Amino acid sequence: MSPIKSGPFPSLISIMKKIIILAIILLIVITGFVIYEIRSVTASPDIIDPRVILQIDEGIAEVWPAGSDTWQKAKDGQGLKSGDRVRTLENSGASVIFYDTSVTRLDENTEIVIGQLSIDSSDYLNQNVGVELVFGRAWSRILNLLDLDSEFEVKTSTVVATVRGTAFSLAVDERGVTELDIIESLVDVTLFSLSSETREIITDKPRKIKLEAGNSLGIGPIKNLKQGEELPDIFALKPGAINSEKLKSKWFSDNGVSDEQFLERIEGVRRDQLRKYINRLPDSSLFGLQNFAEKIGLAITKDEVKKENLKKLYMARRLAEIAELAHQGKTGLATQELVQFENLLKSDGVEKSDMLGAILPNIIFLYKGFLADVLPADQAYRLKQRIEDLGALGNVSDMRKLHWRLMGLEERLREAQRLAKYQNGQKELITNILDVAKLGLENLKSEVQGLADSDYKNILLEKIAYDLKIFETIQGQAQLLDSVEREPLDQPELELEEQGTDEEAVAEPEDDVPALVEEPEPEPEPEPEPEKVLQSLNASAFPNPVYINSSADLTATAYYTDQTSGDVTSAAQWQMFGDIGTISNRVFHAGGVAGSAQIQATYSSGGVIKSVTFGMTVKEYAPEVTLTGIRLMATKLVLGYGESSTLIVEASYSDGSTKDVSSQTGFTHNNPEIGQISGHTFVAYQYDGQTLVTATYGEGGITKGDSIALTVSREY
Q1: DSSP 269
Q2: Among 391, 396, 371, 392, residue whose Cα is nearest residue 381
Q3: Residue 505: its pLDDT value, please?
């Protein structure tokens, strides 16, 4: 018998075993990936609650922690708590950042005490901050606090400034002299008297006033009174306008720049925090897997509290994804996702709305980083408005819903203000936004007036009244756009080519001779000239300050995007805010009283309008001006053979002014072999060497001199 041959079955069984093993491995990998995905989507993001931190801006700052017994050198970024004291040393500066919403900057030699501090971890919009300024100078910038119960308070021994969104400067010296300057919005100010006998604060009869942007209030000394000095009468104090010298000071200008930087920093911090909710975006190929893992995560979670928290997490994630899509410019997809989100809320009814109300305050707080700069012309603007509409669902009381609507109307005013300031032919758009804001404010005012009396009602009515004033200001700026003459657009002339008539003879080519048509060479297209767009405007007066019944010349210079500039003094419109004189024919004429005012120049070019404001001061008398010194300069310090150098002399005077007196100055030098001086020009000979040139100038019986060294070299 022949042996039995093995068939194909053993090899098939081997292949099947391999397939089963591969399938099991693949199943394990997929299961592991799904488990990883489920853990990933159900894990709570590491969201750090906003804190109070100290930022060292310059030099050295020190902290006396609450409960400690000594000052300690501060570290940049260290946390602060209620009761801590902070001080800056000479030539130093520091900033205390409160809950990613507000900042207090300390000038040199300034000390503060951190007072009340509170923030609701489930509602970042609900926060309260208190600061006591012991001595020195502090600048506070508070972003809009979106909760009616939130407030920011800075106090000294005699004054308490309470705000919900503003910028102001507060200073107090060693004698208790206090200065409060309001930069933006409204400030509630409480003033306290002191007992003339015990010098203790009388708290039962304070004076309460409201100060608006541009107001300044000064309170006299309360310590170490000199003979004849009396304690300030708080009921006699009257606010005035901020001194123009203050507005031009380094303290004000530096803090204005720092406020913009602070806003950008906070927006970035909030964006980074909101992004922690995101795993994958809807345009990712694995986004479907993420949603599948979320559903499994909910299905396998039995604890009802944990399941509720997961639902809130997923809602927050959807809103974070929408924000990131909008930030990346994917507005269409972001809007589509928002519509689905809104439909989900409607289909699930009250349950989803309640959950949204629980997560929305913090989401809206973080959302500000994504939508802060979105304007009506931007694609994401409608998305921004729909998010605002969702915000009303997170406000449970009628009063808070009204306040939320007010926040939205104030956002419209900010948008119109930015467009009016940086507009490019968007006058109609600005007008539309203002119309919406005004109508909304007036309707809101009527609704609030119909409510029962309460502190909240008064707060809303005060803010609405102030916002209506802001509306009038922005409307005036918008109307100014029409009053400024715009330059006509360059219209290209159309060159019409004359066409031949039927009667004109047309040359026919000779028989059997093809007509040669010479194709004209195309002319090279000219290089497009760089676009010239008005970029900025600068304005000034000379001299400034001036004295009573004298005058100053006004000057305006325009700067363009093509790096050119031009004198536009005659084309600019001039306006003065203050009663210290008049403006005519581009000249400021001082009146008969001393004081300060603001002068604004406005110029339009190519549909772009720019305005700039500077301070003008009128002094009571002109002191005697005397020569204090001269400065000798030369256009060249090292000359070759036969070259020349112009000598320039600048005279300085006791009032701080200077002028060129080169043509009235006498010159000598101590080495005549290397050159000579003609007028106020030094001409080099063909001889190497060095000489010391001396200038002498006299005026009003006073003579001043200065010297400079010049070198002549063959190798130069």
Answers
A1: H
A2: 371
A3: 37
Helix, strand, or coil (residue 180): strand
Question: Do you find a cis peptide bond into 543, omega within 30 degrees of 0?
Answer: yes
Can you read off the two tokens belonging to residue 585?
């024919």
Q: Which amino acid is it at 227?
A: Q
Buried b (16+ CB within 10 A) or exposed e, 607-645: bbbbbbebbbbbeeeeeeeebeebebebeeebbeeeeeb
**188: β partners:** 162, 210
Nearest CA-CA partner of 475 in 440, 518, 513, 431: 431
93-98 and 102-106 strand pairing: antiparallel
CB neighbour list of residue 332: distance below 8 Å, 6 or more residues apart = none
Inter-residue contact 603 to 556 (CB < 8 Å) = yes
pLDDT for the residue numbered 215: 93
Measured CA to CA, the distance from residue 96 to residue 90 in angstroms comes to: 18
Structure tokens at 383: 């998305």
Tokens at 209, concatenated: 């006033």
SS3 of 72, please?
A: strand
The model's pTM is 0.62
Q: Would you tell me how many other CB atoms lie within 10 Å of the CB of residue 333?
A: 17
Mean pLDDT by 10 residues, the chain (716 residues): 53 80 80 72 83 95 93 94 96 95 96 94 88 96 79 92 89 93 91 83 87 92 85 90 89 90 88 90 86 86 88 89 86 82 71 75 81 74 76 68 84 81 66 82 88 86 87 75 44 35 38 44 56 81 81 82 77 84 83 85 84 83 78 88 88 82 88 86 88 89 88 82
Give the pLDDT score at 678. Answer: 83
User: Which residue blocks in 328-380 are alpha helix, DSSP H?
Assistant: 331-348, 350-371
Q: Between 350-371 and 331-348, two packed helices, what is the crossing angle to 10 degrees?
A: 160
Distance CA(297)–CA(113), nearest Å, equals 48
3-class SS letters over 481-538: HHHCCCCCCCCCCCCCCCCCCCCCCCCCCCCCCCCCCCCCCCCCCCCCCCCCCEEEEE
* Measured distance CA(470)–CA(467) in Å, rounded: 5
The C-alpha angle 460, 461, 465, rounded to 5 degrees, equals 120
Other CB atoms within a 10 A radius of the CB of residue 217 amount to 21
C-alpha pair distances (Å), 353 with each of 490, 528, 683: 56, 57, 88
Q: Write down the pLDDT at residue 499.
A: 37
End-to-end CA distance of the chain: 117
Residues 430 and 413 sit within 8 Å (Cβ to Cβ): no
Whole-number Å distance between alpha carbons of 23 and 57 = 62
Q: What is the DSSP letter of 662?
A: G
Classify each residue of 432-452 as buried b or exposed e, where b means 16 or more C-beta atoms within 10 Å of its C-beta: ebbeebbebbeebbeebeeee
**Element (DSSP H or E) covering residue 594:** none
